[in-house]
Design brief:
This protein is an alpha+beta fold. The protein is built from 16 helices and 16 strands. It is about 40% helix and about 20% strand. The strands form three sheets. An eight-stranded mixed beta sheet has the order 1-5-6-11-10-9-7-8, with helices on both faces. Strands 13-12-14-15-16 form a five-stranded mixed beta sheet, sandwiched between helices. Helix 2 packs across helix 5. The structure holds adenosine monophosphate. It is found in: Cytoplasm.
């Protein structure tokens, strides 16, 4: 018997309904903010992620699932190196959504110079080679948005407001959500700040782990995120980003906060919030649910340099992503079921096999009227057809016996009150629709 890969899940039943609900809520809410849906390929050239996410990030260095055709792999194994491969032969499954959307925006020229911003959202599986555990999968699902061509701090605030509204509409108690924000500076002030953090780590080398010492050289800000408590304790004394912003970044951050205040959105400033991907500039944010034990349920930020990193013209942008599986867990911890009820239906029952033809026609007519209709395909008795109707959450049953069929009539039975009415067969769909509404 085949087995699914560890850290992947089959999506069906209530889990699938929950995923669909997350998309429905997103479509309605993000649509009101002017976002259209996009789907980029799950398979991209490795360079798309290396340029965008950053060579030094854990996601690119350790977690990306690489993909090779069988023919290519044979050659690679024989040679022991992929150094001779062309960029188009080096592929990976996307570990996150932003780099692919930005690649698509550059390739298809979504934001020509001087054009209005483009606003896109997606709902897609992501792939990361992590050690599977609760809330951490190798194939997981994200809903995310990317807003390209928007430099205004109002767009940072609107993005955050939309994210918080999304969580509310999914069923979260807003009082239990913690929104953390920070500003990481830009190309003007970040290099000097990075250097300060690097020096700080090297000054405290004997108090920090090996990995942080490595980070000092490749990506010093990541030391704020170290899993070792003792490193994080040392980093409490490190220079903080908001105190090292240039005037433009400081003004941008202050304006974002003024907009959030005006909208009545509560936030906590966390000067150590850095997020794992290199492309972020200025505003970054993350949302956690108190007491859920699943870590961040979503986060994002501004990435004004990313379009250029992907080969496009300088174009500011920002976005966020939320993780479906963690949202389901966090909601369940609050006693909220995201999936909603199983769908109801109308069940068409025949009193004997002689009515099979009439049942067939009646079922089709209901479906053509847009009603979820079911019938028996296994020769069940009438009693067991009613049982089946209950199991399928039928609100109404249409019962067809020899007398009804001979008279061109059908009986509609309310499954909860057991009330029955007879209607002409020709008016069945109309009568059922009227009763259901
Ligand atoms: P990130 O792209 O790492 O900022 O992740 C955005 C969101 O995706 C997180 O807040 C999580 O909700 C979710 N997420 C990230 N990695 C995983 C994973 N391995 N398994 C499940 N959800 C994840």
């Amino acid at each position: 018997m085949g087995q699914k890969v560890q850290g992947t899940e089959d999506l069906y039943g209530s889990h699938m309904r929950a995923w669909q609900r997350m998309q429905d809520v997103a479509r309605e809410l993000f649509g009101a903010y002017g976002f259209d849906m996009i789907e980029t390929p799950a398979l991209e050239q490795v360079d798309t992620f290396v340029h965008g996410i950053g060579e030094s990030t854990d996601v690119v260095r350790k977690e990306m699932f690489r993909a090779f055709s069988g023919a290519l792999l044979d050659g690679l194994l024989a040679k022991g190196s992929e150094s001779g491969l062309k960029p188009r032969q080096r592929m990976a499954l996307r570990p996150e959504g932003t780099a692919g959307v930005v690649r698509a925006a550059v390739e298809n020229n979504f934001v020509p110079q001087g054009a209005a911003p483009v606003k896109l959202w997606y709902a897609e599986p992501m792939f990361r080679g992590e050690r599977p555990q609760k809330g951490r999968l190798r194939q997981f699902h994200q809903v995310g948005v990317e807003w390209l061509g928007a430099p205004d701090p109002a767009s940072d605030a609107e993005c955050i407001i939309m994210l918080m509204e999304y969580f509310k509409r999914l069923g979260f108690d807003p009082a239990r959500l913690t929104l953390s924000i920070n500003s990481m500076g830009d190309a003007a002030c970040r290099p000097a700040y990075r250097e300060k953090v690097r020096s700080f780590i090297l000054d405290h080398a004997d108090e920090m782990c090996e990995e942080c010492l490595e980070r000092a050289e490749v990506n010093p800000l990541r030391a704020f995120d170290c899993k070792n408590d003792y490193c994080r304790e040392v980093m409490k004394g490190a220079p903080l980003a908001p105190e090292n912003l240039c005037d433009d970044c400081a003004a941008h951050y202050a304006q974002v906060k003024r907009y959030l205040d005006a909208a009545g959105v509560a936030y906590a400033e966390d000067s150590t919030l850095v997020r794992g991907l290199d492309y972020y500039t200025r505003t970054v944010f993350e949302v956690e649910v108190a007491g859920s034990g699943v870590g961040a349920i979503g986060g994002g930020g501004r990435y004004d340099g990313l379009m250029e990193l992907e080969g496009g013209k300088p174009t500011p942008g920002l976005g966020f992503a939320v993780g479906f599986e963690r949202i389901v867990l966090a909601l369940a911890a609050q006693g909220v079921e995201l999936a909603g009820e199983e769908p109801s239906c109308v069940y068409v029952a025949g009193t004997s096999a002689d009515e099979r033809q009439a049942v067939f026609v009646a079922t089709l007519s209901l479906r053509q009227a847009g009603i979820r209709a079911e019938a028996d395909y296994q020769g069940r008795s009438l009693k067991s057809q009613f049982k089946q109707a209950d199991k399928l959450h039928a609100l109404l049953a249409v019962v067809l016996g020899p007398d009804e069929v001979a008279a061109g009539m059908a009986t509609i039975r309310d499954m909860s009150t057991h009330e029955q009415v007879q209607v002409p067969m020709a008016e069945l769909a109309e009568a059922v629709v009227a009763r259901l509404s």
